[in-house]
Structures are given as C-alpha cells and as structure tokens.
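Student: I would love a firmer grasp of how sequence relates to backbone shape in proteins. I am handing you a single protein, as its sequence and its fold in token form. I am told such tokens are a discrete way to write the fold. I hope you can help me see how the letters and the tokens relate. Take your time, and here it is.
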Amino acid sequence: MDSSGPYRAITDFAHRTPSWVQSAFEVWTAYGLLLFGVLLAAVWWRSRRRDAAAAAPALLAPVATAVAYGASELVKYTVDEERPCRSVAGAAASLVPCPGPGDGSFPSNHAALAGAAAVALAMAVRRLALLTAPLALLMAFSRVFVGVHHPHDVVFGLLLGGSVASLTVLALAGPARTAVTAARAGDVPAVVRFTGRGPARRGRGNVPGCRLP
C-alpha cells in the first residue's frame, strides 16, 4: 500500500506548525502510552469494589492489550516494510530520530497498543470511550506527524489492536468472571487483594442503623 502522498502532506504540515506544537507531539508520541497504563490501573482499582461481571473486563483489559501487542509484533515480523523517514523520497525530515534498519514500519505498535487499550477500557467502563477513542486517534496521528510511520501503518495498527482486544475480552469474559468469583471466595489474601472483595455486603436484616454481630 502506498500512502506516501498523505505522509508527505502530514510531515510538511508538521514542519509548518509552531515549535511548541512540534514539541507537544514529540512528548505525546514518546510518552502518551503511559496515560493508557494509568487508565488501565485506575479501572482495575475501581473494579475491586464491583461485582464479578463488572470486574472481569477490567481485569482483562491489560491482558487484551498485551495480546494485541503480540499480534502486532507477529505481523511486523512477517511484513518487512521500511520506515518512511528512510524510504519516502522528497519528504520532510522526521521530527524524532528515525528508527534503525530492521525496525519495521508496518503496523504501528503504538497505534495497535493505543487502539487495544482504548477498546478494552471502553468495554470495562463504557463512558471512557469518550476519552480513550480520541486519545488513540491522537496517538496514531502523532506517529505520522513526527515522521516515523506511514498513514496506513497507523490505520491498520488501530484496527488490529481494537479488534484483537475486543475479541480477547469477549472470549475470556466468562472464564474471567468465574475466576474472579472463585478468587474472592478463597482464603488467599494476596489473590483477594488483587481481585478485591466486590461490592460491600450489608448485614442481614433491614433495620436502618442496626448492625448485626
């Protein structure tokens, strides 16, 4: 697939932006995935007080993201595509150092990870889609903006990551729900701390303000 035309247009646009915009994209493309990590941790922590049905997708979100990364690496190993910062003639210089030879361009692992985390987080907490979807698109765009990926690399990465993550969560939701229920009922403190005890259980009896021993 040849997307050198859009690549040149985006990288030319990048060089016309103010230096602070370029710096912002350089920081985001390098460290933006850490924000997805923070969100994954926050959703896991929140799930510890939820029932097993809600906790299962939250606990599966990082697993699904890791599986999507593995799928992206497998495709990258199979497809040998040169980075556009070395292969596209007449293109503006990349804003960040061009990855060395042997580090393939297709697909974008950053885009795959962002797409996977965005979808997995949204499956755990639906309203998070309003945040994670734009963040994933911004991460994908940033990889072209700084000049290290073709547009088709990031599009495929987003689609691959999102689809693998959703299939992983759907396939493992049942077993994960069963495992969370069993773990919470067990007597292994470390496991219970990891899964949480679920929703707070009220004492028997419905007398307001009355606690049974």
Observations:
- Confidence is low (pLDDT under 50) at residues 202-213.
